[in-house]
Design goal:
Elements: E1 2-12, E2 16-20, E3 23-36, E4 39-48, H1 50-56, E5 64-76, E6 79-91
Antiparallel strand pairs: 1-3, 1-5, 2-3, 3-4, 5-6
Length: 137
């Protein structure tokens, strides 16, 4: 599941490094503050891998960024843990990649939506014919 959010970096935590059976690893966590309705919320994101840690090093606390991330969960000893793993970090307001190709100028115009028309009024209703009653009783 890929998600995006914009906010302000509030805290950069220290880089953590280690050695696993597959080789060296590095990660860095940071706290992002973002608008949540009338209030602000904070979430801790993780930059896994040396390349993501280097991307994060370009920013400082107080910088506004757009974070693209995956939500991951894992179980350990009967408890579940969530992890917000970033896969892209960009300055806030950066243009997003187009999701679909642009429509050419030669393409036909889209059909108008039902929401474009005004709501009907009583004057728009057909006249009531009292001479014919189609009720079964």
């Amino acid at each position: 599941m890929a998600l995006e959010i914009e906010g302000t970096i509030r805290q950069l935590l220290p880089v953590q490094q280690g050695q696993s059976a597959r080789g060296p690893w590095a990660k860095q966590e940071f706290v992002l503050e973002f608008p949540d309705g009338n209030y602000t919320s904070k979430a801790c994101f993780t930059a896994w891998g040396q390349d993501k840690v280097q991307d994060l090093a370009k920013y400082a606390a107080g910088d506004k960024v757009k974070v693209s991330f995956n939500l991951k969960s894992r179980e350990y000893a009967g408890k579940w843990y969530n992890d917000l793993q970033i896969w892209k970090l960009a300055p806030a307001g950066a243009p997003a990649a187009p999701a679909a190709p642009a429509v050419s100028a030669a393409a036909p115009a889209a059909m108008p939506s039902a929401f474009d028309a005004p709501a009907p009024t009583l004057d728009d209703m057909p006249p009531e014919d009292l001479s014919e009653d189609d009720l079964p009783f």
